[in-house]
Amino acid sequence: MDYKAFFAENIRGYTNILGEKIMKKMIILTLFLFGFSNGIFAISEIEELLIKEATNPELKKIAKEYLIKKAKDHKDLAERYKSLSNLSKGGKALSSIEEHKKYKKLAEHCEKEASIYEREANNL
């Protein structure tokens, strides 16, 4: 093997390792930045990108853990809304009924989002 072929092969291997390290750092940064945000849609574009880019087992594990955590957060929030929908503050009956409906609707929405996150985590 001549030195040009040897050099080209080693550079290719180095760039693959370097690319993998950069991808891991990007995923961690993405999780950090968007882990605290609550979007309107269950799976945001950045989360879809995270799922698509999870190509090896280690990246899939990171993405799956993130999605499972998001599902748990949404389930916890749904439970809070359910407890608020059962809470009676007194006051006018009509406004109380509307408030109960609002919290039930929010709980259902959070449960739907949790199921979407769980489904995506199971697909990885």
What does this entry look like structurally?
It is built from four helices and no strands. With 124 residues, it is an all-alpha fold. It has one domain. The model has no long low-confidence stretch (mean pLDDT 78).
Helices and strands in order:
Elements: H1 3-34, H2 45-53, H3 57-86, H4 93-123
List keywords for this structure.
124 residues; mainly alpha; 4 helices; rod-shaped
> Which residues form runs of ≥5 with pLDDT under 50?
none
Helical content, roughly? over 70%
| Rg | 22 Å
Estimate the mean pLDDT confidence: 78
Q: Globular, elongated, flat, extended or rod-shaped: what is the shape?
A: rod-shaped
Strand content: under 5%
Strand segment count: 0
Class derived from helix and strand content: mainly alpha
How large is the count of helical segments?
A: 4
| Domain tally | 1
In whole angstroms, how far apart are the ends?
A: 41 Å
Order of helices and strands: HHHH
